[in-house]
Amino acid sequence: MNVFLHELKSYRKSTIVWSISMAALIIFFLSMYPSFSSSASLVKKILEGYPEPIRKAFGISIDDITKFLGFYSYVFSFVVLGGAIQAMNYGISTISKEIKLKTADFLMTKPIPRNEILTSKLLASLTSVIITDIIYLVTAYITAESVTKESFNIKLFFMISVTLLFVEVIFMSIGVLISAVVGKIKSTISLSLGVVFTFYIIGMLQATLNDKAMKYITPFKYFDTEYIIKNSSYDITFVIISILIVLISIFLSYAVFLKRDIHAV
Amino acid sequence: MNVIEVDKLTKYYGKSRGIIDVSFDVEEGEIFGFIGPNGAGKSTTIRTLLSLIYPTSGSAKIFGKDCIKYGPEIKKDIGYLPSEVFYYDNMKVIDLLKYSASFYKKDCSKRIKELSEMMDLDLNKRIDDLSYGNRKKVGIVQGLLHEPKLLILDEPTSGLDPLMQQRFFNLLKEENKKGVTILFSSHILSEVQRLCNRVAIIKEGRIISLEKISSLRENSYKRINVETAVDVRSDYFKIDGVSNIEIKDNTVSFLFKGDINLIMKKIAEISISDVTIEEPSLEEIFMHYYMRG
To answer: Does residue A265 form part of some domain?
Structure first.
C-alpha cells in the first residue's frame, strides 16, 4: 500500500496536467460543433473538396460529421492519441524510472517482494489514468449536453468514450513490457511519443488503404467508432485481441522483472 | 552462529567475470571487512546477498536462510548503505525517511530523530538541494532507522568529511556493541583496519585471503619516502623489512614492513629535508604482501 500511495503521489502533477489538457481539448473541439451543424451543407461541400485519402486518414466521414456522434468520434480520435501517450509514458516509467533515477537500490533492498512492487506501481499508473479519464468523461458529457440542440444517444456516447480507457490499458501494458525488457531508458517521453505515433500513423495508413489485415496491428483501430455507432456493440474479435495483448504483456513483464539483475550505477 | 554464509558464489555478466567461487562466513556480532580494488567484485557479492542480482551458481545464506528465496523476509533485518546514494529528488528528507520506515511495520520516528541529530542532518530540506556528503548522511540514517541486525555497507565513507566519518565509525561501533553484525566493504585498507575484526580480500573476482586484522597489522607495510639533504649510499636503507628501493636524485622511496622504530632510527641518523610515511596502495599490498608464497 505504501508503494502504491508513493507512486500515486509522484504521478499527481502529471495526472493534473493531463486531466486539464484533455478536458480543455474536448471543450475546445466540441464548442466548434454548433457552427458545424448549423452550416452543415457548407461544411460538407468544403470537406468534399479534400482528396478522399486525406479524409479517410483523418477519419472524416462526410455523412456523419455533421451529426453529433459523428463529429464526436472524429475529435475523439485526438483524445485517444493523447491518452495513449499518457498511458505509454506511465507504462514505460514503471520500471525504467527507478533504474534511470537509480532509486531501484533503495526500493529493492526493502522487505517487499518484487512482484508486489510491480503490482503496486501498475495499479498506481492505472489509477492515475482512470482519474484522468473520469475528469475527461465528465467534462466531455457536460460540454456535449450544452453544445447540442438535438438529443444524441447517451449510451453510444459513453460506449465510444470508454474505449479511451481500453486503448490506454493496451498501451500501458506494452509500455511496461518495454521497460521490463530494456531497463534503463534515457528519455521516456521521446520513446513513448515514437511508439504511439508509429501506431497512430499505421492507423491512418490503414484507413486510407482500407486494408483489413492492418487493422490488427494498431490498437487505435481496435475500437472502431463507426462500428460502435452502427452495431451498438464492440467488435468481439478485437476485444479478445486487446485482452490477450494486455494479459501477455503484463505476464511477460512480471516474468522478466522478477528475474532481472538490478545493476549497480 | 553465522549471520552470513557464502558458498561458492559465482556470477558472470554474460561472458565477463563478476565473482568466481566466493566463499566466506560472517559470525554474529563481528565487523567483517571486505576489501579489494575497484572492479574486484565487492559490489557484485553484496548485490547478490541483497538479491538485487541473481547468482550464476553457488548460494548464500543470511540468518540461515537462502538470500534469494527468502529475500523479502530477511531484508526486514538488514540495513544497506550503497556507495552512491540516490533518492527521489523531489522529496523532503523527512518524507523519504518516513517512506523508508513504512516498509518495516514498526515505529521508527524516535530513531530517525536520534540518528539525524547525531549526523547533523536537516530533515526539512529537499533531497535535490543536498550536497553529496549530506545525501550520504540520508543514506546512513535510512540504513539504520529500522534497527537492523545486519548492516551491509558498500564503500560507505566516500563523500563524508573526516569529522562525519569519525561520527559514523563511532555509530557503527555503538551498533556493533548492541550486537549488530556489520559487513563493511571498502578499498581503503586503513579504514578496514580501524574497524574490523576480520577481513576478506578479493581480487579479480576471487577471495585471495581471509585474515584476522591483528595478523594483517603485523604484516602491514608502509610506503616511506625520504628526501635527503646530502647524498646517501644506495644501500644505506637496506635493512630487514625494506623492499622495492627506488632512488631518484635525493629522494629514496621504499616499502617497509616490521618494527617501525628501527626504520625511524635509521632515518633520524642522517640529515633529511623531508619525509613522508604513508599507507601503501592496495595494489602494492597485493604485489608485495600476497605474492609472498
So the answer is: no
Name the residue of chain B whose CA is nearest to A264's CA: B43
pLDDT digits (tens, 9 = 90+) for A35-46: 877 777 777 777
pLDDT the model gives residue B293? 40
Question: Among A105, A112, A262, whose Cβ lies nearest the Cβ of B103?
Answer: A112
B186 interface with A at CB cutoff 8 Å = no
3-state SS, residue A29: helix
Same domain (yes/no): B251, B274: yes
Whether A264 is covered by a domain: the verdict is: no
Instruction: Give whole-number Cα distances, B292 to A208, B207, B219, B257, in Å.
Output: 79, 16, 12, 13
The CA–CA distances, whole Å, from B53 to A100, A179, B57 equal: 17, 17, 12
Residue B293 resides in a domain: no
For the CA atoms of chain B, what is the radius of gyration? 22
ipTM metric: 0.83
Name chain B contacts of A110, Cβ cutoff 8 Å: 75, 100, 103
- Tell me the C-alpha distance between B196 and B77, whole Å: 21
A192 in the Ramachandran plot: left (φ > 0), alpha (ψ -120 to 50) or beta? alpha
pLDDT at B284: 64
Residue B72 belongs to domain with CATH number:
3.40.50.300
Query: What is the pLDDT, as a whole number, of residue A22?
Result: 95
Q: CA separation (Å) from A55 to A46, A51, A74, A111, A224?
A: 11, 7, 11, 56, 16
Instruction: State percent of chain B over pLDDT 90.
Output: 42
Chain A residue at shortest CA distance from B48: A261
Instruction: Please judge whether B100 and A262 are an interchain contact, meaning their C-beta atoms are less than 8 angstroms apart.
Output: no
Q: Give a yes or no: residue B278 inside a domain.
A: yes
